[in-house]
């Protein structure tokens, strides 16, 4: 008869790791990076025209163009440019608060508002199916800011947590979000309208606390001006200033390789690795090259093999389809 320890080890050796990118959420109508900036800047212009005009004037001068079309502006380059403006105008000091310049904070807010407006009230069935089929020891590592998976888990009656420093037997799924989340904040929250909960990261390796609220899973706070001053989403923007924000999330990057130790299958869904995203590329190469698990990259990009040519693991395979019911069938067969 197997001992309890042997049973637990056997169960954990059958766990799966899911690594999610923007392509995971696009089937629900949430915009990818290609269209998100234009949608966010449209709302930005209508609700906060002063700061919008300041950014647009600087961008116009930088590119040498009269009319700025944010459909054609590189998102990563824009974020890097905003970091540069802060350097030349304020000597590297913070312009507006300890958490970033007014322009960057406003951009983060309107990016998240554009995502919130695009999130459906009722998720497509395959997202609910995905949430239902997550097992106790599965790990979901998502680089998305959206709350689509959290919403699906709540709908399925599954409890989730962002911080896994302490054993919590009531938690069904741990969501690791190394790029932050649109329902997170690094400001201390007291006597607010939304219910902010500390993650207790200070019990780990960081001096900085992060707070989250499940109230932002629903649209009404982003749609109401009453919550404008309270919502200060902590998300990691692309570009060369990314390292500044990532440091505050060091607890989610430290020993991240541990999630792969006992995995049987790894599914990378909708993650198109940018050429200049050295954080994600370094993380994937540092881990996926060294494991014996089956690795499946799910992405419809016709050049997806080229994007992942830095991974040398022979267990790597590709499914060139958008995430949907067919993906779920493959995941079920693999698990």
- Domains counted in the coordinates: how many? 2
Note the gap between the termini.
25 Å
Mean pLDDT across all amino acids: 85
How would the global form be characterised?
A: globular
Number of strands: 12
- Do you know the CATH topology of the largest domain? Rossmann fold
* Uncertain regions spanning at least 5 consecutive residues: none
Largest sheet: 7 strands, parallel
H/E element sequence:
HEHHHHHHEHEEEEEEHEHHEHEHEH
Query: Numbering strands along the chain, what is their spatial order in the largest sheet?
Result: 3-4-2-1-10-11-12
The helix-and-strand class reads alpha/beta
Folded structure, characterized:
The chain is of the alpha/beta class and 335 residues long. The protein has 2 domains: 4-30 and 120-334, Rossmann fold (3-Layer(aba) Sandwich), CATH 3.40.50; 34-118, no CATH class. It is built from 14 helices and 12 strands. It has a 7-stranded parallel β-sheet. Strands 6-8-7 form a 3-stranded antiparallel β-sheet, with no helix packed on it. Helix 3 crosses helix 4 (49-63) and helix 7 (125-132) packs across helix 8. The radius of gyration is 20 Å and the shape is globular.
């Amino acid at each position: 008869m197997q001992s309890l320890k042997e049973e637990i080890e056997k169960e954990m050796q059958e766990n799966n790791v899911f690594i999610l990118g923007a392509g995971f959420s696009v089937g629900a109508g949430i915009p990818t990076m290609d269209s998100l900036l234009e949608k966010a800047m449209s709302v930005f212009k209508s609700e906060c025209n002063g700061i919008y005009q300041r950014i647009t004037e600087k961008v116009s001068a930088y590119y040498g163009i009269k009319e700025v079309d944010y459909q054609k502006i590189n998102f990563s380059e824009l974020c890097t440019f905003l970091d540069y403006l802060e350097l030349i105008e304020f000597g590297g000091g913070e312009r507006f608060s300890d958490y970033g310049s007014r322009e960057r904070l406003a951009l983060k807010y309107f990016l998240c508002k554009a995502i919130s407006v695009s999130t459906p009230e009722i998720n497509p069935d395959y997202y609910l199916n995905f949430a239902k089929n997550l097992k106790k020891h599965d790990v979901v590592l998502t680089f998305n800011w959206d709350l689509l998976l959290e919403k699906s888990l709540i709908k399925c009656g599954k409890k989730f947590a962002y911080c896994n420093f302490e054993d919590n037997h009531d938690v069904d799924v741990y969501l690791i979000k190394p790029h932050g989340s649109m329902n997170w904040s690094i400001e201390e929250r007291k006597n607010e309208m939304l219910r902010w909960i500390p993650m207790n990261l200070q019990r780990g390796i960081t001096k900085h606390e992060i707070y989250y609220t499940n109230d932002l899973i629903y649209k009404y706070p982003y749609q109401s001006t009453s919550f404008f001053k309270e919502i200060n989403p902590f998300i990691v923007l692309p570009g060369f200033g990314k390292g500044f924000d990532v440091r505050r999330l060091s607890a989610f990057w430290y020993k991240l390789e541990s999630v792969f130790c006992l995995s049987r299958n790894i599914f990378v869904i909708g993650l198109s690795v940018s050429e200049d995203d050295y954080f994600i590329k370094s993380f994937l190469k540092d881990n996926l090259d060294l494991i014996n698990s089956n690795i499946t990259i799910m992405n419809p990009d016709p050049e997806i093999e080229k994007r992942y040519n830095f991974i040398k693991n022979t267990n790597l395979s590709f499914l060139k389809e958008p995430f949907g019911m067919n993906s779920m069938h493959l995941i079920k067969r693999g698990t």
